[in-house]
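EI: anyone free to look at a 296-residue chain?
SC: sure, send it
EI:
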Amino acid sequence: MTDLLPIRKAVFPVAGLGTRFLPATKSIPKEMLPIVDKPLIQYAVDEAVEAGIDTIIFVTSHKKGAILDHFDPDAELESLLEAKGDDELRSRIHNIIPAHVSTQYVIQEKALGLGHAVWCAKKLVGNEPFAVLLADDLIRSRESGCLKQMVAEYHATGAGCIGVEEIPISMTDCYGIVSVEKDATGRNYIRQIVEKPKPEQAPSNLGVVGRYILPAEIFALLESARAGVGGEIQLTDAISRLLESKPMLAHAFEGVRYDCGSRKGFIRATVDYALEHEDLREDLLSYFETVKTLPG
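SC: here you go
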């Protein structure tokens, strides 16, 4: 479809407290915790840039200046690396975010839920479709990243899109859950979305992950939304109302998702990404062999 507005802007809700990683996150934003040598937030921003995003919008808190600092230029550090002749590392620092991509931010004064965080970006997004990425969900793809896959679906259909994956039915009360109906092209259109249903009440085992492409109409629905599960403004509830007037796709992305909001998922991501580094792989594999033989 050629008459669609492009997906240019991406919203990153990063105001959360990261309590599952305390005390590490007492002074360090959870999004700045590193997977090998890059913070979680940079993996998500890289994915957005790959998908064609040119405006990064951080919905943050007063305590999370480190995220904004990370993406700001650091001429002093670059000069130091240049003087040392470390051109490769200087290039990595200089190109943390491409020159054609801008960063903006808005403060979420109170942590009132994901829906409220997205609503806080209303003025910066304006009247156009946009993406939402949750850095906690680190998605490793061999070819096109998850958001790039979803942008392609948006351009093919004109519909909004949500990333999903199959989860154990016993874990439905940890996710937004969708039921879908397949069309003639094999695409899955969402028929119902429910926030954290009990397993016996879940419409399916398709869990929502932290990737969304949403129309601007979502802001009006968030504006009038009441507190839902957990006493928060749920993005899921607004999407449920949106389905009454707008089609939404459920995209089962190609790739592996790590729940880096949990310690187990964070450690798994660290190991898998480290094994992709040639300078680390052999030493790690050798170390894993010794771990197997440790007592206890």
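EI: The first strand starts at residue 9 and ends at 13.
SC: 👍
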